[in-house]
Design a protein that fits this description.
Order of helices and strands: EEHEEHEHEHEH
Number of domains: 1
Bound molecules: guanosine-5'-triphosphate, magnesium ion
CATH superfamily: P-loop containing nucleotide triphosphate hydrolases
CATH class: Alpha Beta
Structural class: alpha/beta
Number of helices: 5
CATH topology: Rossmann fold
Largest sheet: 7 strands, mixed
CATH architecture: 3-Layer(aba) Sandwich
Helix content: 25-40%
Strand order of the largest sheet: 1-3-4-2-5-6-7
Distance between the termini: 20 Å
Radius of gyration: 15 Å
Length: 194
Amino acid sequence: FFLSPAEFVKSATNLSMIPENTMIPEVAFVGRSNIGKSSLINGLVNRNGLVKTSSKPGHTRMMNFFKLGDKLSLVDMPGYGWKSRDEWGGMIISYLQNRKNLRRIYILMDPSHGLKESDAQIMKLLDSSGLSYQVVLTKMDRLSKTKYSAAKAEIEAELVKGSICCFPLVLGVSSKTKDGLDELRAAIVKASQL
Ligand code: GTP
Ligand code: MG
């Protein structure tokens, strides 16, 4: 099944531009630049080109809001690690901490890079704010099954150590082959009903 039809709502460069707090359940996608956030949203809604993607890191510079009727709102974020931490921090952290209809934050990681310091920092922040997040491993197609499993196990071991608000299931996806997208869609629908 698909999360569709999806439509673009708005881009925001500062908090005042964010669509007003609606009752529509919202999920947001964060992660380092070039990790595959924008590609994943295209894959989830099955519409290539809805969100612009690029092989160059730092492509998405604004928060972009998309919606599926009045059922679900999806938010694409600029990558951290591109903008300076303060710049990324100001608006986005405030959005994450204050958005009442935000049901879950998806933190995307590349299994061939592992869990980075910037990921640990954002998880710490979400834990301290009591915000529910789930880890999604992207670009699965780039690793053999064996290497992917080993990388996933390593990341899971890191998560077990310190995370509090982390949903215990780590999902894997490939926007290229569409592997794992159905599982993620199901998780999003479930999270949006919480
Ligand atoms: P920023 O907007 O810069 O933060 O990046 P992003 O996280 O939105 O990444 P984006 O979706 O633009 O993808 C970055 C690059 O990774 C592009 O060249 C994509 O084609 C590639 N990519 C994304 N998903 C996959 C995937 O599942 N498999 C493979 N092989 N490449 C992917
Ligand atoms: Mg992007």
